Amino acid sequence: MQTQPKTLTEAIRYYSNQQTCIDAVAYLRWPDGKPVCPKCNTVEGERKHYWLNTQKRWKCYSCRKQFSVKVGSVFEDSALSLDIWLIALWMLCNCKNGVSSYEIGRATGIAQKSAWFVLQRLRLVLKDVQPVPMGAGEANPVEMDECFIGGKPKNMHRSRRLKLKLGTNGYAEKTAVFGMLERGSRQVRATVIPNVKRETLQKKILENVGFGVECPACFVPVAKRELDKESVWDEGRSTSLSRW
Ligand SMILES: [Zn+2]
User: In terms of domains, do 164 and 213 share one?
Assistant: First the structure.
């Protein structure tokens, strides 16, 4: 996957080719280009699995069973074609302000309910992906901020408020979210954190930001510029609360 589509139109055109989709998924699953048989776990080594071009499947040289790129992946058991999954994945990864199932539905022509299912599964998969460090340093700074997401106690039903032991003014039950924005690439990461204590935040920063030669202890917040607040947090709040 050398040429990544930059816009949604490009992505739709790019993934309209079945072979491109298979190659893209194969690359995501086996970055070294060696498919593994999901039935017997035989790794392609000196001997290669047979590629059945008309059926768009491999045939394992060891157990002789056939497998498609979908078998054993999140796309298995789905009637939706790969291009829809990949367009949804592209939108999920590239729309900075988040993407709703309605938008995916409109872009791909599938029902909103199916799009919601697609998004749920993709999010589950992305959750386990080990993050690549974001670039730090003077040339490529990373902005960070935390915020609280959750309903106001005064809008809750009385029974729920009693259950959470809240008054009408408490904020104790809101969820703390920590966000990071790489200023150069406009890449955003947000993660739920148990609290906003210094140690918690520092741990998240060390997990996500590559420091290079700079010492993490020298990390000084740049001015009081809040993480593109209006565009990230406010959008995130509205979409996450209403549709996600
Ligand atoms: Zn096999």
Answer: yes
User: Is 70 exceeded by the pLDDT of residue 239?
Assistant: no
What are the tens digits of pLDDT across the range 41-52? Answer: 998 888 899 999
The rounded Å distance from CA 85 to ligand 1 centre is 26
Q: Is the dihedral of CA 46, 52, 58, 60 positive or negative?
A: negative
- Is the pTM higher than 0.85? The answer reads no
Task: Report residue 220's pLDDT band, with 50, 70 and 90 as the boundaries.
Answer: very low
16: CA distance to ligand 1 center in Å? 29
Compute, in angstroms, the gap from residue 66 CA to the centroid of ligand 1: 8
- 80 and 42 together in one domain: yes
Residue 203 belongs to domain spanning:
142-243
Same domain, 13 and 55: yes
Residue 132 forms part of a structural domain: no
Q: Do 149 and 181 share a domain, yes or no?
A: yes
**Model pLDDT for residues 149-169, shown as the tens digit of each residue:** 877 777 888 888 788 777 666
- Determine the distance separating the centroid of ligand 1 and the alpha carbon of 69, expressed in angstroms: 13
Q: Residue 45 C-alpha to ligand 1 middle, in angstroms?
A: 13
Cβ 178 vs Cβ 191: under 8 Å: yes
CA dist 128 and 28 (Å) reads 14
Report the C-alpha gap between 32 and 112 in whole angstroms: 35
Distance 29 CA to ligand 1 centre (A): 16
User: Does 2 fall in a domain?
Assistant: no
